[in-house]
Amino acid sequence: MESYFLDWANLLLRWVHVITAIAWIGSSFYFVFLDSSLTPPEDEDLKKQGVSGELWAVHGGGFYHPVKFAVSPPKLPGHLHWFFWESYSTWISGFALFTVSYLYSASTYLIDKSRMDWAPATAIVVALAFFVVFWLLYDAICRIFGQRKNGDAIVGALVFVLVCIASWLACHWFAGRAAFLLVGAMIATAMSANVFFWIIPGQRTVIAQIKAGEPVDPIHGKRGKQRSVHNTYFTLPVLFAMLSNHYSFTWSHPQNWLVLILMMFAGAAIRQFFVMRHGYKLGRNGNPLPYALVGVAVIVGAIVWMRPAPLAAVSGAPISGAAGAIPASASGQNDYKSVQAVLEQRCYLCHGEAVQMKNLRLDSSDSVKQHAQAIYQQVVVQKLMPMNNATQITDAERALIGRWFEAGAPTGP
C-alpha cells in the first residue's frame, strides 16, 4: 500500500508541477519577448506620461496595446497584477516531488553504491547542499561582477563554469538519473530565489517609493531585469535535465556529466537565438541564427558521439544466471527458463515474494506474461531497470529478454 500511495503522490505532484511550470515559463517567455519587441511610442501623450516602449499585437480576435514605463507610471492603478505565485508554486511542487521521488527512497533512487557508498541521511544532506551552495555562489557572482563593464559576459562565463563543476560532482556522487534531476532542480531553485530575493523585493521597493512620493531608484528595475534575463537562459537547460530522467541513454552514459553539460549548453544557445530574434527584426542587433546553429550542432554531435555499439557481438553470448552460465538456445531464441533465471538474479530483489515494488511480482509466470510489454520497455528498450543497474544486469541478459519478448513472450514449457 505504501508504494501505491507514493505512486499517487508522485503522479499528482508531477501534474501540479507541470501545470505551474507551464504558467511560470510562459509568463517569463512572454515578458522577454515583450521587452525585446517594444518600440518607442508614437503618441505624444504616451511620451509625456513617461512611456518608454509600446507594442501592438493581435490575439484571440482582439487587439492589445501593452506599454512600458521607463521607471514608474505617473499614477499607480487600483489593481496591480504580480507575477510570483507561478514561480513559488513551481518550486514548492517540484521540491515536494523531488522529496517523494528521490529523498524519501534515497537508498534506492539517490544513491549509487558503485559511485558513493554513503548513508541515506548523508546523501540527502549533500543533495540539499547543492541547492544552497549553488545559489550562494551564483548570487555572489552576480553581486560582484554584474554591474561591472562587460558584466553580463563575465557572469555568464563564471556561472557556466559553476554549472559544469556542479554537474561533474553530481554525476560522480549520485545515481545518474538522480544527478541529472538534482542539477536541474539546483538551477531551478536559483531561478525561484531570483524572484523571491531580488525581483519581487525590488518591485515592492519601487511601489513603496511611488506611494511615498519619493524619487524612484532605477537600480531596482535594472537588477530585476538582470535576474529575469538569467532565468530565461536557465529555462531550457532545466527542462532538459527534468525530461532526461525518462531517457536512460543520457544519464547512464559513462561520461554522463559531459552529456548533461553539452545538452544544457545547447539549450542556452538556442534560447539566446529566440531572445535576440525579436531585436533582430527591429534592427537592434545582428542575426542570431549562429547561436541556434551552434546549439543544434552540439546536439547533433552528442547524438553521433553517444550512439550505442552494435549488440550483435553479445546477442549469442552466455547469460549468467543463479546456477551459473546459461547458454542461448541453439535456435537463437531463449526459453522462459533462461529468462526466469535472469529475472531471479536481477529482479526478484525488488519484484519478488518478499518485496513487490510498484505492486509487481516477477516470480510468477502469469504476472510476467501480463507485464511482458512493460518488462521489455523498461529492461531492453529504455534500460531503466534494474534501477541504477544495482544488480548489474548485462547487455547479453537484456538481449535475451528482448529475443524472448519478440518471440511472443512464452511462459510455458
Q: Distance between termini?
A: 34 Å
Beta-strand portion reads: under 5%
Identify low-pLDDT runs. Answer: 312-317, 321-333
Instruction: Give the SSE string.
Output: HHEEEEHHHHHHHHHEEHHHHH
Q: Work out the number of β strands.
A: 6
Radius of gyration: 26 Å
Q: Helical proportion?
A: 55-70%
Main beta sheet strand tally, sense and closure: 2 strands, antiparallel
| Tally of contiguous helical segments | 16
Secondary-structure topology with pairs:
Elements (H helix, E strand, L loop, with lengths): L1 H36 L6 H6 L1 E4 L2 E3 L2 E3 L2 E3 L15 H19 L2 H5 L9 H26 L5 H23 L2 H36 L7 H25 L4 H4 L4 H26 L7 H17 L13 E3 L2 E3 L9 H11 L1 H4 L13 H6 L1 H10 L13 H12 L7
Antiparallel strand pairs: 1-4, 2-3, 5-6
Report on the architecture of this protein.
This protein has helices spanning 2-37, 44-49, 85-103, 106-110, 120-145, 151-173, 176-211, 219-243, 248-251, 256-281, 289-305, 336-346, 348-351, 365-370, 372-381, 395-406, and strands at 51-54, 57-59, 62-64, 67-69, 319-321, 324-326. It is elongated. The chain is mainly α. The protein has a two-stranded antiparallel ribbon with strand order 1-4.
Descriptors for this entry?
single chain; 413 residues; mainly alpha; two-stranded antiparallel sheet; 64% helix
